[in-house]
Amino acid sequence: MRYRRWNEPSLGVRLAAYAVLAFMHLPVLVIVLYAFTTADRTYEFPPPGLTLHWFEAAFARADIWAAMRLSLAVAAVATVFAIILGSLTVVTLLALPRIKGGWIGLMYALQITDRDARLHTADHAD
Fold it and tell me: Going residue by residue through the chain (126 aa), what tens digit of pLDDT does each one get?
Protein backbone atom coordinates (compact mmCIF):
# COMPACT_ATOMS: atom_id res chain seq x y z
CA MET A 1 0.00 0.00 0.00
CA ARG A 2 1.34 3.36 -1.03
CA TYR A 3 1.03 6.21 1.45
CA ARG A 4 0.44 9.77 0.43
CA ARG A 5 3.00 12.39 1.28
CA TRP A 6 1.72 15.21 3.49
CA ASN A 7 1.74 17.72 0.61
CA GLU A 8 0.17 15.44 -2.00
CA PRO A 9 -3.55 16.12 -2.62
CA SER A 10 -6.01 13.29 -2.18
CA LEU A 11 -8.01 11.83 -5.04
CA GLY A 12 -11.13 13.71 -3.93
CA VAL A 13 -9.33 17.05 -3.91
CA ARG A 14 -7.89 16.41 -7.36
CA LEU A 15 -11.29 15.37 -8.76
CA ALA A 16 -12.90 18.48 -7.26
CA ALA A 17 -10.20 20.68 -8.82
CA TYR A 18 -10.72 19.07 -12.23
CA ALA A 19 -14.50 19.49 -11.90
CA VAL A 20 -14.11 23.19 -11.13
CA LEU A 21 -11.74 23.66 -14.07
CA ALA A 22 -14.17 21.88 -16.41
CA PHE A 23 -17.09 23.94 -15.05
CA MET A 24 -15.19 27.13 -15.82
CA HIS A 25 -13.67 26.20 -19.19
CA LEU A 26 -16.39 24.21 -20.98
CA PRO A 27 -18.69 27.25 -21.50
CA VAL A 28 -15.78 29.15 -23.03
CA LEU A 29 -15.10 26.25 -25.40
CA VAL A 30 -18.75 26.24 -26.48
CA ILE A 31 -18.59 29.98 -27.20
CA VAL A 32 -15.40 29.52 -29.21
CA LEU A 33 -17.06 26.70 -31.15
CA TYR A 34 -20.04 28.93 -31.99
CA ALA A 35 -17.73 31.73 -33.16
CA PHE A 36 -16.99 29.61 -36.24
CA THR A 37 -20.56 28.45 -37.05
CA THR A 38 -22.35 29.10 -40.34
CA ALA A 39 -25.77 29.50 -38.67
CA ASP A 40 -27.13 33.05 -38.74
CA ARG A 41 -29.46 33.25 -35.76
CA THR A 42 -30.25 29.92 -34.17
CA TYR A 43 -28.00 27.87 -32.00
CA GLU A 44 -27.90 24.29 -33.15
CA PHE A 45 -25.70 21.68 -31.64
CA PRO A 46 -23.52 20.53 -33.21
CA PRO A 47 -23.00 23.62 -35.39
CA PRO A 48 -24.06 23.01 -39.00
CA GLY A 49 -20.77 24.18 -40.47
CA LEU A 50 -17.62 26.14 -39.82
CA THR A 51 -16.66 29.49 -41.31
CA LEU A 52 -14.51 32.55 -40.65
CA HIS A 53 -17.20 34.90 -42.03
CA TRP A 54 -18.00 36.39 -38.61
CA PHE A 55 -14.41 37.38 -38.02
CA GLU A 56 -14.22 39.07 -41.43
CA ALA A 57 -17.40 41.03 -40.63
CA ALA A 58 -16.17 42.02 -37.17
CA PHE A 59 -12.73 43.15 -38.34
CA ALA A 60 -14.30 45.29 -41.08
CA ARG A 61 -16.06 47.48 -38.47
CA ALA A 62 -14.26 50.62 -37.29
CA ASP A 63 -15.85 50.55 -33.83
CA ILE A 64 -14.37 47.09 -33.18
CA TRP A 65 -10.89 48.40 -33.99
CA ALA A 66 -11.42 51.45 -31.74
CA ALA A 67 -12.48 49.17 -28.88
CA MET A 68 -9.43 46.96 -29.47
CA ARG A 69 -7.09 49.97 -29.40
CA LEU A 70 -8.65 51.23 -26.18
CA SER A 71 -8.41 47.78 -24.57
CA LEU A 72 -4.75 47.46 -25.56
CA ALA A 73 -3.98 50.96 -24.22
CA VAL A 74 -5.66 50.19 -20.88
CA ALA A 75 -3.81 46.86 -20.71
CA ALA A 76 -0.48 48.57 -21.40
CA VAL A 77 -1.05 51.16 -18.67
CA ALA A 78 -2.14 48.45 -16.21
CA THR A 79 0.96 46.42 -17.08
CA VAL A 80 3.26 49.38 -16.44
CA PHE A 81 1.61 50.05 -13.06
CA ALA A 82 1.81 46.37 -12.13
CA ILE A 83 5.52 46.26 -12.98
CA ILE A 84 6.20 49.40 -10.95
CA LEU A 85 4.20 48.22 -7.93
CA GLY A 86 5.71 44.74 -8.11
CA SER A 87 9.22 46.15 -8.28
CA LEU A 88 8.56 48.40 -5.29
CA THR A 89 7.18 45.41 -3.38
CA VAL A 90 10.31 43.39 -4.11
CA VAL A 91 12.54 46.24 -2.96
CA THR A 92 10.48 46.53 0.23
CA LEU A 93 10.61 42.80 0.91
CA LEU A 94 14.37 42.77 0.40
CA ALA A 95 14.74 45.64 2.87
CA LEU A 96 12.50 44.01 5.52
CA PRO A 97 15.28 42.73 7.80
CA ARG A 98 16.37 46.35 8.29
CA ILE A 99 12.81 47.56 8.96
CA LYS A 100 11.66 47.37 12.57
CA GLY A 101 9.28 44.46 12.99
CA GLY A 102 10.21 42.65 9.77
CA TRP A 103 7.50 40.42 8.35
CA ILE A 104 5.31 40.69 11.43
CA GLY A 105 5.29 44.48 11.24
CA LEU A 106 4.45 44.37 7.55
CA MET A 107 1.59 41.92 8.03
CA TYR A 108 0.21 44.01 10.91
CA ALA A 109 0.38 47.17 8.79
CA LEU A 110 -1.32 45.46 5.85
CA GLN A 111 -4.06 44.11 8.11
CA ILE A 112 -4.79 47.57 9.52
CA THR A 113 -4.79 49.09 6.04
CA ASP A 114 -7.13 46.39 4.74
CA ARG A 115 -9.51 46.80 7.69
CA ASP A 116 -9.56 50.58 7.34
CA ALA A 117 -10.24 50.30 3.60
CA ARG A 118 -13.12 47.89 4.21
CA LEU A 119 -14.62 50.09 6.92
CA HIS A 120 -14.29 53.19 4.74
CA THR A 121 -15.99 51.41 1.83
CA ALA A 122 -18.78 50.10 4.06
CA ASP A 123 -19.40 53.57 5.59
CA HIS A 124 -19.82 55.17 2.18
CA ALA A 125 -21.72 52.36 0.43
CA ASP A 126 -25.04 54.20 0.50
Answer: 677 777 788 889 999 999 999 999 999 988 888 888 777 766 777 777 778 887 888 889 999 999 999 999 999 999 999 999 888 878 877 776 665 666 666 666 666 555 555 555 555 555
Residue 83 lies in a domain: no
Is 72 part of any domain?
A: no
Number of structural domains the chain divides into: 1
Query: Is the dihedral angle over the CA atoms 98, 104, 105, 107 positive or is it negative?
Result: positive
Q: List the domain range (segments joined by +) for residue 43.
A: 7-60
Whether 37 maps to a domain, the answer reads yes
> What value, to the nearest 5°, has the Cα angle with vertex 66 and ends 64 and 67?
65
